[in-house]
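Repro:
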Amino acid sequence: MAKWKNRLVVSLIIMSSCKTASTNLQVEKILLLEDFPSGSSLEYYDNKFYLSGDDASKLLILDTGYNLIDSVALFESEVKRIAKAVKADLEASAIVTVNGTPHLVLIGSASLLTREKMLLLPVHDTAAMQLLSTSNYFNRLSKAGLEDVNIEGAASTGKFMILGNRGNLKHPYNHLVFTQPDFWLHQETAAVDTAILVLPPHKPFAGISGMAYIEEEDLLLFTASTELTGSSFDDGEIGDSYIGWIKNISDKTGTKKVVADGFINLSDHHTSFSGEKIESVCVSHSEMNRHTIHLVSDNDNGVSKLFKVSVTIN
């Protein structure tokens, strides 16, 4: 059983701008997971959170209060953290419908051959999990001009899947990849529609780390973080983390560049985000332009941290 350290945090108000957008953001809750390493993807479905780590051997299932409900063994391992050279590096996740049944899809980063794989789990029958290869599709991404494939985020709109490819100091460009929501079923023919994600100019480079889609507003949320590394394999010194958003994302397919409509530096506004490498974002509730979102961080030290945040996006 994981050890949980739970603390409430006083409300925080942030006013920020990118273009003409303004944002009110409140941090409501923080939870330290001492026994769960490398939190990398977080999904919400049917009042449950699904948390995976890029080198963790199991998936955690949590209730709306972040209490542990269950866990699912993903890989056989006798150690807490699977070695970097052989881990699947599950960095991206989404909820998709397959044959009328909701599934959790966990996608490896594809930054190495050992990471060109994904897991498909029916949310109501996780024992029916499938391990699939994604090599054919991600090889096509390389041939399409992505110099360094490193998938860190995913979001399903129902009509299509968006993948987030993280850049680094050597290749300082983030990309969005628009494809079919079940691209793994037809990897040779599924769309490879790539666009550079344009962020406000700043240094050091901030790489995309997670994504979530809000259907009611056709809004794509994403997280980004700075890390002093020139490759998709090596870790580096952790810097600031961000939340950004793109409005009317469904209209952005077929374009070569997608400009973020908003971008918030979390680390500048509250000490709780200082030194935290935010890896993923999901949404549990939306009403008008007010959203309850959840973030997970991984600081490469064997623990993970969850954040509950309310944010208004105008």
